[in-house]
Amino acid sequence: MSAPNKSYDPVEVEALKPEEIERMRDEALAAFAAADSLDALQEAKVAHTGGTSPLALANREIGALPPHAKADAGKRVGQARGAVNKALGARQAELEAERDARVLVEEAVDVTLPYDRVPAGARHPLTTMMERVADVFVSMGYEVAEGPEVEAEWFNFDALNFGPDHPARQMQDTFFVQGPKGADSDGESGVVLRTHTSPVQARTMLDREPPVYVVCPGRVFRTDELDATHTPVFHQIELLAVDEGLTMADLKGTLDHMVQSLFGADMKTRLRPNYFPFTEPSAEMDMLCYVCKGESVGNPDRPCRTCSSEGWIELGGCGMVNPRVLTACGVDPEKYSGFAFGFGIERMLMFRHNVEDMRDMVEGDVRFTRPFGMEI
Ligand code: PHE
């Protein structure tokens, strides 16, 4: 800064010369125009309006001028600074607007994206199906009974009147649990993976006094290879009723009620003679095909894929509980009689929902289960 003086001409002070002030102003305007970001503009602002900027230094020179020269120099510097501040504000607003527009694009939220990155699972249709069937009987007053999946051979076979040489005992059907092998043991454990839910019949009768009305859903095991129509692990539902005076007519009425509840009011069942060691008489139970209602039979114009135009769909086995089983389980066959039936859930799911490959049911792919929804 120059020292105060009396006869001072601002034009003579280098920094206050009009063309100098103009140059400073133009440099500042050019710097602002060239700033392509808010950071760059901030730098230009410090350089051209800060305390050590050329115009600020020039402004300080004014204080040293004699009074008559101050107004003239002050006006020049003031106008230049005004123009610089105005340009700065304008450029600032411009760059901020650009930034805001960019942020709107870059940080936009796509509200149509899936909000849930961990989709909830779905209940397996086998579970839903088993519960639907069990519910039909629970609403009739039956209780749900369960038994172990690793079962004593006695419950799985002997109590159910399977002779020691019955083919179902043989290795090709049954998973035998290996026992310890040693000097005093041949490796036989007397334990199997249950091959059906019928052992729950024996357990229930031993467990409680008649009248007995139970429904037994559960997992069963047979030594089948997994393919489109077989699986070594599958599900059955068993029904057992033991009371005074029960007859085959009660069995038939119960079966009809079940298929009507599950498949529609115009459904019915039919029985065909069969053999099971634990029921006598025994029958194979079929239900009317719920798709063609039997109308495809002998009618080539209306073939039915669901029942292969047979008119009936095979469900499972049933019969009157064999008196030998009642006796083995401590129930007096002179006083009580009973009926039982059992069928596979996988099969029912296959024809009810047109599932064509059994493997879809065991692979655990949610794309299979999800379309069945969350029926509870
Ligand atoms: N347990 C038999 C099976 O697995 C089905 C059945 C149950 C038959 C009850 C008669 C009575 O094939």
Automatic annotation (TrEMBL):
EC number: 6.1.1.20
Binding site for Mg(2+): 280
Annotated localization: Cytoplasm
Stored InterPro entries: aa-tRNA-synth_II (IPR006195), aa-tRNA-synth_II/BPL/LPL (IPR045864), Phe-tRNA-synth_IIc_asu (IPR004529), Phe-tRNA_ligase_II_N (IPR004188), Phe_tRNA_ligase_alpha1_bac (IPR022911), Phenylalanyl-tRNA_Synthase (IPR002319), tRNA-bd_arm (IPR010978)
Any single GO CC term annotated in Swiss-Prot or TrEMBL for this entry: cytoplasm
Main location, first listed in the record: cytoplasm
Membrane-spanning parts: none
Residues in Aminoacyl-transfer RNA synthetases class-II family profile domain copies: 127-371
Origin superkingdom: Bacteria
Cofactor: Mg(2+)
Keywords per UniProt: Aminoacyl-tRNA synthetase, ATP-binding, Cytoplasm, Ligase, Magnesium, Metal-binding, Nucleotide-binding, Protein biosynthesis
Keyword Acyltransferase listed: no
GO molecular function, one term: magnesium ion binding
Record's cofactor remark: Binds 2 magnesium ions per tetramer.
Catalytically driven reaction(s): tRNA(Phe) + L-phenylalanine + ATP = L-phenylalanyl-tRNA(Phe) + AMP + diphosphate + H(+)
GO biological process: phenylalanyl-tRNA aminoacylation
Family: Belongs to the class-II aminoacyl-tRNA synthetase family. Phe-tRNA synthetase alpha subunit type 1 subfamily.
Quaternary state and interactors: Tetramer of two alpha and two beta subunits.
Protein name from the UniProt record: Phenylalanine--tRNA ligase alpha subunit
